[in-house]
Structures are given as structure tokens and as C-alpha cells.
Amino acid sequence: MNFFNLLELMAARQAPREVGLTKDEIKNLKRITYQGDNKNKPENEKDLCTICYCEFEKDEKLVELRCKHVYHEECITKWVERNAKCPVCKAPQTDRPIFTEEE
Ligand SMILES: [Zn+2]
Ligand SMILES: [Zn+2]
User: Fold this and answer.
1) Ligand lying closest to the C-alpha of residue 53
2) What is the pLDDT of residue 90?
3) Which side of the chain, N or C, has fewer Cβ within a 10 Å radius?
4) Is residue 12 part of a domain?
5) What domain count does the chain have?
6) DSSP 8-state assignment for residue 16
7) Structural domain of 90
């Protein structure tokens, strides 16, 4: 093995970096307002944000992802800035490749 093989090997071992959504993509996420009736739902059927584990309240601003999972706008915005996939089902929220090679 020569020096260049070794360099290649090291480059290959470096995991690609995951990137989040762009500002525009975040802006284009589907915003909804919660109109459900969480108060009257049985405990195990309440709609909640699986990022902060808080139940949705009427008129709260939410974001519905492509995969139909719903989160607080605030919670999911922070999440997708760093990670372009749904926190629950890992569905990509963009058609771009979401990995970049480390320079
Ligand atoms: Zn939340
Ligand atoms: Zn999802």
C-alpha cells in the first residue's frame, strides 16, 4: 500500500455530512393551524409533537411534512435546519441529495 492508497482509504472512511433544508425549503413547508379537539380525546389518541412531547392546542401553528407527520412549527423548523428528514419516519423532506461530501 502506498501513500495515495492510504489517503483514499481515509477519505472513504469519512462519513458524508447530513445537511438540513435550505431557508426557502423551510419557508415552503406546509403550515397548518391545529383545529383538533385534543382535550376530549382519550389519553393514547391525543395529537402531540414528538419533538417536544407537548400536546397540540387549538389554533397552534403546526407544520405538516410530506409524510403527513405534524409538529409544532417552532420545533420542526429547528430540526430541519440541521436534518432534512422527518424525526419519526426518516422520510426526506426535499428532492435534493441531502448528503454533502466534507470538503
Ligand atoms: Zn413541539
Ligand atoms: Zn414522517
Assistant:
1) 1
2) 94
3) C
4) no
5) 1
6) P
7) 19-96
pLDDT given at position 19 = 84
C-alpha 72 – ligand 1 centre gap (Å): 4
Q: Note the ligand closest to the C-alpha atom of 78.
A: 1
Taking the chain (103 residues) in consecutive chunks of 10 residues, what is each chunk's mean pLDDT?
A: 75 72 96 94 94 96 97 97 95 85 55
- The residue ranges of DSSP E strands in 1-103, in sequence order, are 17-18, 30-33, 48-49, 54-55, 61-64, 70-72, 99-100
Whether residue 56 is contained in a domain is answered as yes
| 26 found inside a domain | yes
- Position 69, amino acid: H
pTM: 0.77
| CATH code, domain carrying 81 | 3.30.40.10
How far, in Å, from the CA of 4 to the mean position of ligand 2? 42
Ligand nearest to the CA of 72: 1
Ligand 1 centroid to 62 CA: how many Å? 9
Tell me if 65 sits within 8 A of 72, measured CB to CB.
no
